[in-house]
Specification:
The protein has 397 residues and is α/β, with parallel strands linked by helices. 44% of the residues lie in helices and 14% in strands.
């Protein structure tokens, strides 16, 4: 019997776009699964003051841009499950006390967290203030960092079997951990063929297509990377997607040689990312949890560049192990490596297969099913919706 839920909250924190996109995917899946329930989504940082937002979000971006090795060192130092973070917790609770008060006044029956900040705050409210909400935490990287393990959730949704083993080794009850994959847009469950996607987007079907995703924060030497990609326009179409970063879009657009607009495009935010990934032959970008999950769902090999030490390096290690990516450590040799890869059809085909075989395109539905099981008191129920990307997906040629 399907449980009756009146209100479910999906909570994230806008530190980079990945956590928020995962939350949006979960919201869509829950609204489909629970048409009579109120499914709310919220970025908790929007309820904090500008000073805390700057410290929590902007300081991280600045450190990752200017001192990435320091970020990696801090990441490793903090990677200890159940580590006491009382000083950080006090600051977070002070900054979000109004949001916490509102939550206690009108609590949801279940809260799904796609960032560890709201998960930790909810666990605190439940332990010390009697919050009746059940908590589901969705880990949005391929690895599980100790920061996710800062409170006892009722349900944990993780990317893969190794993440499951990490959780169990940290003392999490196995029956509360579900291998769902990282939730992505439902459009990735049934992508069009490459030719159909290119026809819709107006892309030359006879030339390879390289897609360059700068990432929302545009970390790393974006212009040097794009300059390398421009040297490949004799053999491939190059499309750069800059998201909401208008400064990056303007800078890259100014680099396009005159008369080459048919071979090189620079776009801002695009609602057609699934179509672009379906159309592309190769993705150049940072190996974030969401981006790499979307690429694998599209059967799209990655050329990973400038991973942030810590979570992105760990994501990349998984992608390399699966054979779904190559690592490009310097812009100086990027074009040379990509040209070789485009000329090696068997290797590129093998990478496409590896990407599809490691994908979980219906992860958002799997998270929604896990939440329903939690509501019914069956958090450890068998996995559902574990179809791979190859199932029901047109072959890429």
């Amino acid at each position: 019997m399907e449980p009756h839920l009146r209100r479910v909250s999906v909570l994230s924190a806008g530190v980079g776009a990945g956590h928020v996109r995962a939350g949006q995917a979960v919201v869509a899946a829950l609204r489909q699964a629970l048409p009579d329930a109120e499914v709310l989504k919220q970025d908790v940082l929007e309820r904090a003051g500008p000073g805390f937002r700057a410290m929590y979000r902007d300081a991280y971006v600045a450190l990752a841009s200017r001192t990435p090795r320091l970020v990696g060192w801090l990441y490793d130092r903090a990677d200890e499950p159940w580590q006491s973070r009382w000083y950080a917790g006090v600051i977070e609770r002070l900054a979000l006390r109004r949001w916490m008060r509102d939550l206690l006044r009108e609590p949801p029956e279940i809260a799904v967290c796609t960032h560890f900040l709201p998960a930790a705050l909810l666990c605190h409210l439940r332990r010390w203030h009697g919050l009746p909400t059940r908590i589901a935490t969705v880990v949005t990287d391929l690895d599980v960092h100790g920061l996710w393990l800062d409170g006892r959730a009722d349900l944990w949704c993780v990317a893969g079997e190794e993440a499951h083993q990490i959780m169990v080794a940290a003392g999490v009850p196995p029956e509360t951990v579900r291998v769902t994959g990282i939730p992505i847009d439902a459009a990735f469950e049934s992508l069009p063929s490459r030719d159909a996607a290119r026809s819709r987007l107006g892309v030359d079907s006879a030339r390879p297509l390289i897609m360059f995703s700068t990432g929302g924060c545009c970390l790393g030497p974006v212009e040097r990377t794009f300059a390398q990609l421009l040297t490949l326009r004799d053999v491939a179409t190059v499309v750069a997607i800059c998201g909401h970063n208008e400064r990056a879009r303007t800078a890259l657009a100014a680099m396009i040689p005159a008369g080459e607009e048919d071979r090189v495009r620079v776009l801002g935010f695009s609602s057609e990312m699934p179509w672009w990934m379906a159309a592309a032959d190769l993705l150049v970008g940072k190996p974030g949890g969401l981006t790499s999950s979307e690429a694998r769902a599209a059967g799209l090999p990655m050329a990973a560049i400038h991973p942030i030490p810590g979570q992105e390096e760990r994501n990349l290690a998984h992608l390399l192990e699966w054979g779904a990516a190559i690592a490009c450590h310097t812009p100086a040799t990027l074009a040379w490596r990509l040209r070789r890869l485009l000329q090696d059809a068997p290797r590129l085909s093998a990478m496409r297969r590896a990407a599809r075989d490691s994908a979980r395109p219906c992860a958002a539905r799997a998270v929604a099913e896990a939440v329903l099981s939690l509501a019914a008191g069956q958090a450890g129920a068998p996995e559902v919706c574990m179809a791979r990307a190859g199932a029901g997906m047109p072959a890429r040629t």
